[in-house]
Amino acid sequence: MDYAAEMDRILAEYTAASRTVTDRFLAADARTTREGAAVFDSLRQRFEPEPEPPVQAVRPDPEPQPRRSGRETYVLPSDWTEEDEARSQGYGSPNSWLV
User: Fold this and answer.
1) What is the DSSP letter of 15?
2) Its pTM surpasses 0.70
3) Residue 93 · residue 87 · CB < 8 Å
4) Are 96 and 86 in contact (CB under 8 A)?
5) Which of 14, 59, 80, 98 can bridge 84 by disulfide, Cβ–Cβ 3.0-4.6 Å?
């Protein structure tokens, strides 16, 4: 019996069978990848809610403020100017008010 020839035959048979298995596996993988992507796309479209158009924010109209006279307003010390300080010390109205 020629062992080298028998080993070559076994190796060739194994190589051919493994190529067949590899080809079948790659074909099945490509098919499931293609079809799987289509299945996931259809599921995503089915379960993903449709985008709603953005609603414009409507600001409420500001309520009209009642008119107030100068006697009803408060002047805080942070609102005072140098002219106000001079007037409180008795220097009178500044010239810029007359223009």
Assistant:
1) H
2) no
3) yes
4) no
5) 80
